[in-house]
Design a protein that fits this description.
mainly alpha; transmembrane helix; two-stranded antiparallel ribbon; Yip1 domain-containing protein
């Protein structure tokens, strides 16, 4: 495996294997979100779960946010390239979420939650913030940023591979539509 495969697995792996992997990761996403009381209200955003919501609410919201992204991206893909296949867009959305899945379990760890709470409680009195808590949250924040960028790279490369876009106007349109999907999904769900 080389760097090209890591950043664009859509070129190397069969779409059925990618789909199976994506579906398995989606299922894991549901249970991980339940574990840490999160909900995936858009493809690149997790928010806190309300107290009265359970696993079925997580399943519904996560599913609807993915479906919204897939449907809108598929419409855009068909406009840009009529030969785009639905499975390629579905795989793009599913596979691009894998790096974000790494972040969920860490956010559920009790010592990490305690460090975040400590920072939140003492934001106005920095002298009360533990250097260990600050270091842990800062390092994990940096790692999370890297994972988010990797997720976006997979998302872009998957869409680019599925649609064969090359013009900068199409890339800008894709970025704009993706931003709108993310915002609208968070508002709706």
């Amino acid at each position: 495996m080389n760097w090209k495969t890591i950043f664009n697995p859509f070129l190397k792996f069969d779409e059925k294997k990618l789909l199976i992997t994506g579906i398995l990761v989606f299922g894991l996403n549901i249970f991980s979100c339940y574990y840490v009381d999160f909900v995936n209200d858009s493809i690149f955003h997790y928010s806190n779960l309300d107290e009265d919501q359970g696993i079925w609410d997580i399943l519904k919201i996560n599913s609807l946010s993915y479906i919204l992204a897939v449907v809108i991206l598929f419409i855009l893909a068909k406009i840009l390239n009529g030969k785009t296949r639905f499975i390629d867009i579905l795989n793009t959305v599913l596979i691009s979420q894998i790096p974000l899945m790494v972040m969920i379990p860490v956010n559920g760890l009790s010592f990490y939650k305690k460090a975040v709470d400590n920072l939140s409680e003492n934001i106005n009195t920095p002298k009360n913030i533990s250097i260990v808590d600050m270091t842990m949250v800062t390092i994990w924040g940096f790692i999370s940023l890297i994972l988010l960028v990797y997720s976006i790279v997979l998302y872009y490369n998957g869409f680019k591979t599925a649609t064969n876009i090359k013009k900068w106007q199409h890339i800008v349109l894709f970025a704009f539509v993706s931003l709108v999907i993310t915002i609208v999904s968070q508002i709706i769900f």
